[in-house]
Design brief:
The structure is a single chain. The protein has 167 residues and is an alpha/beta fold. The mean pLDDT is 93. The chain contains 4 helices and 5 strands. It has a 5-stranded mixed β-sheet, with helices on both faces.
């Protein structure tokens, strides 16, 4: 019997930090013999940070997964791959203590990106996911694809429409 999985890859990119940034995701249906791309998405912001883009990539991916993929592929296990230890550790370990501590870190500082962490926590609590860290820039096909899409998205936010002469 073949066990298929939904694999979700995400990545964020930022030129300078803060600066223009991009996020991207790719979703696949994968079994032992084949893989099929189901969905991809990307976007960006003019002034952001790398960590915000990593979080937004996951939020956008999980939103699309919940709305477009999960209803069609009920019962398929989902695995989310990120090259951000900040995201993987944050959602798997740190967030529990942050919530108990009123969104403060162990050093009693406010949690950075709390708005995005709260969105991610709400989404993740509605889904059954396995969270996996994958080494970035190490030849993983879909991590590399997400990186390329995120970098492209970060460049696209800087494109300004051609200047029109006003006379």
């Amino acid at each position: 019997m073949t066990t298929a999985k939904i694999k979700v890859y995400t990545d964020g990119a930022c030129s300078q930090n803060p600066g223009p940034g991009g996020w991207a995701f790719v979703m696949l249906l994968k079994n032992e013999q084949t893989e099929q791309e189901l969905l991809r998405g990307s976007g960006g912001e003019k002034l952001t940070t790398n960590n915000r883009m990593e979080l937004l990539a996951v939020i956008q991916a999980l939103t699309a997964y919940r709305e477009k993929i999960a209803p069609k592929y009920t019962g398929y296990p989902a695995v989310l791959y990120t090259d951000s230890q900040y995201v993987q550790q944050g959602i798997s370990l740190w967030i529990k203590k942050w919530k108990l501590n009123g969104w403060k870190t162990a050093s009693r500082e406010p949690v950075k990106n709390q708005d995005l962490w709260q969105q991610l926590d709400s989404l993740a609590s509605q889904l059954s996911l396995e969270w996996m860290w994958v080494k970035g820039h190490a030849g993983n096909r879909y991590n590399e694809l997400c990186d390329t899409l995120a970098v492209e998205a970060s460049k696209n936010v800087l494109q300004i429409p051609p200047h029109q002469n006003q006379t």
